Sequence to fold (336 residues):
Amino acid sequence: MSGDLQNIVDNVVDIVGAGPGDPELITVRGMKLLQQADVVIYAGSLVNPKLLDYCRPDCTIYDSAGMNLDEVIAVIKEAWPQGKRVVRLHTGDPSIYGAIREQMDILEAAAIPFRVTPGVSSFCAAAAALKKEYVLPEVSQTVILTRMEGRTPVPAAEDIRNLAKINATMIIFLSVHMIEELVARLREGYPADTPAAVVYKASWPEEKQVVGTLADIAEKVQAANIGRTALVTVGRFLGDEYALSKLYDKGFSHGYREAKAFSKKLLTNGPRAVIILTVPMIITASQKVVRGLIILDSSMVEHSAVNRGVVGSNPTRGAIRLKQLLFNWNSCFNLY
Fold:
């Protein structure tokens, strides 16, 4: 087989996620594919052009912002049979609002092999910029990625008003230009005091953040003159109330770690769990009863006790408060 034919057999079209904007946030594979590419078609309206610095000087580059689907495919169909390495560079992760399915279907019908290299989505970069975690115990374990309808319709069941009733963490793409209408719909499900944040161009040098609640976020966004290329994030994950996870709970066993011995005893003894007391107590020896306000360090409290309703936690203050509880001294003593 000739060299050119071997190149065609080995060659595939690469659909690559460019990441959220910062050129260093593209994957290592994505960077290497750009370095090897003979032809790059990139979404110029959204992809940071600095990423093209990874390309060789002789690489042919097309900006798809001014191209339609047929024109994009025509470039690929011309380059691939010549054994050229083609990279289709999409913003963020190609699977999220990347419009890649239609391209893949055409390539498949044309028997042109392709593969997809994932990228860091802008919604991940937004969480990093805000220094927040989308899923928190007892706050939300669900993340909704959605958008308002525009020229692209949204199924009726997925209307923002319906999704808002779940009160989960929500990330809204492609909708900041409709911020007033968006907030009005969100408030049909979320309370007005629900935290909200808008991140403009997450990870870019010109990144902006606007933080507020659903009561004032629309006004703040308009004042900041943000009308495009921004994500709207909504949910209590932006607040400070949450429970600690089981993942690193010393009283929780899993496939890689056994619970601490003392923690295991607390688990088996159930709701009598009282640990190291950090303030004085009043002990009535004759009744063997401990009374009063007791404060324990949160790092010493087993989540088994919290989950069984013995105590309520406020991890943001790093302490557990037990108010006006009665504990049988013998039960406490037997834990040790």
Notes: Confidence is low (pLDDT under 50) at residues 1-9, 271-336. The first strand starts at residue 13 and ends at 17.
